[in-house]
Amino acid sequence: MIPDPSAAAASRLSEQKKNSCDGENSTGAISHSGDESGNENRRKSVRRRKRPHDGSENVKRTNTKASCSSVSRARGSHRKQRHVEAVTLFEVVTMGRSAMQEVIDDWIEAYVMDRDSSLLDLISFFIQCSGCKGVVTAEMCQTKENSDVMSKMVEKLDEIAGLQYKKFLAFPWILTVTWPMDTDSVEYPLIQSGPYGRWFHSEFCDFVSVLVAQCQHSVIFDSYLMNTLISLLTELSNSYIRAFRHTCTLAALKLLSSLVGVALSLSVGIENNQKLYKVQKTKNMRQRSTPQLERIQKTITEEKRAEIESMMDIIFKGVFLKRYRDVLPEIRSLCMEELGLWMKLYNLVFLNDSYLKYMGWMMNDKIPDVRLKCVLALQDLYGDAQLLPKLDLFMSRFKDRLISMTLDKDNEVAVQTMKLLSDDALSSDDYRQLLQFVYSSQRPLAVTAGELLYSRLLNPLSPESEALGESNAEEVHKQQTYARLKALLKFYQESELHQHVVYLVDSLWDCAGVLLKDWPTFTSILLQNSSYTPGLARSEEAVLVEIMVASVRQASEGPALVGRTGVKKVMSAREKKQQTDDCAKLTEHFLVVLPKLLSKFSHSWDIVVSLMKIPQYFNPECPEAENTQVVSSLLAEVGAVLELHSGPDVLEAAARSYLSLCADGASWCSVAQTARDSMIQQWVDKLKVLLEDSDSFSADEEKTGEILTTLRKLRAFHNCHDLSQWSLFELLSPLLSIESVQGGPPPQEKAVVQRLQLRLFCERCHHCLTHSDHSVRQQAFLGICDVLTAHSYQLQVWDPTSCGPLLYTPSPKLQRALLTFIEATWYSENSEVEMKLEDLHKRRNLLAAYCKLIVHGVLEMSMAAEVFMYYMKYYNDFGDIIKETMYRTRQIDKIESARTLVLCLQQLFTRLRREQESGGGAHPGVQTFTSIKELARRFALTFGDLVKFRECVVTIHRSGIEFVFQGFNQMPETPTPLYLSYLTILSEFSSKLLKPDKKTVLCYLQKHTAEHIVNLREESWQPLVYYRASLLAVAEGEDAASYVSSDRKPHPPNRSPFSRQKLEGTARKLSQALSYVLIIAKSVLFVTLQEINLPARSARLSPK
């Protein structure tokens, strides 16, 4: 422990009394005016100008002799020699490290001459650094044990005087700090925003470090300076005032870090002297110097190091143990950061379980920055192999917590934790769990996991055989690549929960890009052109092709993936050049090799799907693209594959590849367009031949299958290419009806032609809505919705100078058919989980298409009432779509949207009343009174801005009052309105009324009730009481809904089981053919609407 300098303090006190003119010379004052305060220093320029300072930093004493002991006089004696301006210690922070060392040296000289005055200057420095604009007074204390002295240690407010006081013991001083109350909320230097705050933090820490470094060989061991300084920082770090606590905690922690450096220097000196002593001892008597040996033996003492360690222990127990769980996150972060530094530098003392436990505990802190500081500190410790044995117990205790931190909500914490666990700190089973993070949605975390995967599974692999020798380095490289790819295939196949090759390749791209871009080795393995590669299994070949295609995509497009965040948005010039070079290399290689791969794997549709995507990433500026023979060979193989496969995935990949090859400006454009047109012409000719028979739908099964296959191909290419020259609408429109359309050629006017096609399509689709096959009904519904939505958008962008607009309004019969169809989407007939999810996705698409018609004005907004009434009942399945529709309609016309909500509630209430009166069985469209009331409450919550939707809410109330009292004639047999209980539902909107509107609605209600005799004491009128109370904002003790209605008891539906016959053979294929005809006809209509830039699927609300 640091010795107590009470005796020395008493002697110094007596000397000061002799030199003082008054009786109170034991008290000094440090005054901080507005010009010299820490707050004023914030406004100084960062250019660190030196300011002249007249006189001492302390207020001049009344006695001339006493003032001669001040720091200014001590520095003044050297002013002419060193040419250093007189500055305060606080101003030193603004002058840089070089000036800091000179001024601190002067302060040490002044401290040797007069310790008390110099210590007051140092105390003033820390008070000013805390941003305090006040006065510090100091008085000498004889002993710490005096109970009267300890009772004076207070921290209080004087609200009358507007001052704050803090009196604390920094032995041998009793310090009192006084400052105005209104400055407590002002930012102190450490937390100021901008560069000044960061710069002051750095300079302040440097000051503490330089102070200890300059004092380590002299006054630091005088048992006075450090005792006072530690007492000061300990007391201020315990203050409830944030500025004192934060600033002095930082100073105390940096002081301990500086003492660690001193202890390390002493340890090195002790070790060197011990070695020198051993050398002297080994010499013979003649060579040995006895005085030198005795001098060395005296220097080998550990008293100074023990004293330094005692200081560190006092700071740790007095500051760290009280502040590492401080309410301020910045203080907790400082504690963890400095603790990690102590463990790293002075592991002999700090790297043990007694200190490591604090690091483990604070990994559970709720602030991400604190957790991050713990992880970064542990990274430095685990990075030193010599320290690993001391961390075994810590890892066994906190291993689970570290693994769970890879799932931290803060991305940086998760990434740094993954880097920490990459240092061989866990078992193989734990690493198997961590490697799955290559599929993470956060790219930095996935890349870190990819580095872990590469270092543990891919990089250590070497060729199994060394018989090839160094002469055949290429074969050795290929064998190494094959071994790594084999390990990668094994890892992917063992990850049964993930089937995302593109994300795996993206995670490995930064560390294993050379391996993944070795396309010649990939294709050589797939073609089995080398003897060193044994045959791959069928599943391994498929995965290897997927990895190869994913690497091609990554090289061409970069790391941008759907669902993965944290990607750098702007590429550097070097990255762009690398991307261009990679595209040229893959184009040159795959133009030659891809036909061979397609020929080999032509009978494997899944491999063909992946291979078909490669031409989409070709670089048309590649020199190899001039070779038309190679391009023709590739297109011939693609055409041969399309003759074998007609699956949707293969056709979509081929259509997109042809779209890329046929792009304008490409050198192979003409060759690709010729091949595409020839292939489509063959399909159209074949379809014409198959459709020559007027009774095509009754043809044999083989012919129907050919029609279906050809329609699939035309549908896939029609989505990407312009096939208008083949007049597919005229060719396929007869298939939509049993009767064939007779008549001459259509009129030449553009609008008339389009209107006829649109009307014909809607009529045929309307007829298909009653088809026996559910898939045909769904496709017909989607076709009508998409085409009508596109037609609505076309009206907005129509150029009136070209020709008349394409006017078409769906008939009421068609609107009712659409509404009837959408009502069936609320229910699912599948019970299996997978089928139920797939069916839900389809039903969401159908509902979104119908809502799009309402949003785009194709259907009246009132048609949305039938949709809104299911908002609560099917919230989990369709709530997001209905809510978005409600929001869009409110943007179009908020008053009409409010009337739609009213219509929805009134229809539900009317159905409920009608069912209660009839006493019939339960109907799916009828909801309970409680459900309707809850639906009204959820509707009311959508009106967030009361001022913006003021008219809407008033409209809802007025419409509700009119609904209740309209046509009511009070008679003895009907004393109350039939729908009076609707007011209870309407009261859910009362909280959204402004005060003036509540009075208006109340007057409107009284106007309707004034003509009738209302007895509020009767139970039948309680809904009116409840509603009036909601308008008057009076809390009622009992819910009026309990007087009016109760929930219906659910009755099981009395339905006979419906047996559905399976469509087999020709009938099923005919239904599929009809579905494809609907799709192609819809696409043709989109092409004819030349002004429309709205794809079919984008015209639909996107379900989540």
TrEMBL record:
The keyword Cell division applies. Residues 33-43 have a biased composition (Basic and acidic residues). One of its GO terms (cellular component) is chromosome, centromeric region. Keywords: Cell cycle, Cell division, Chromosome, Chromosome partition, Nucleus. GO terms for biological process: cell division; chromosome segregation; sister chromatid cohesion. GO terms for molecular function: chromatin binding. Residues 1-79, 1043-1062 are annotated as: Disordered. InterPro entries: ARM-type_fold, Cohesin_Scc3/SA, HEAT_SCC3-SA, SCD, STAG. Residues 320-405 form the SCD domain. It holds the Pfam family SCD. Its main location: nucleus. It is found in: Nucleus; Chromosome; Chromosome, Centromere. Part of the cohesin complex which is composed of a heterodimer between a SMC1 protein (SMC1A or SMC1B) and SMC3, which are attached via their hinge domain, and RAD21 which link them at their heads, and one STAG protein. Belongs to the SCC3 family. Component of cohesin complex, a complex required for the cohesion of sister chromatids after DNA replication. The cohesin complex apparently forms a large proteinaceous ring within which sister chromatids can be trapped. At anaphase, the complex is cleaved and dissociates from chromatin, allowing sister chromatids to segregate. This is Cohesin subunit SA.
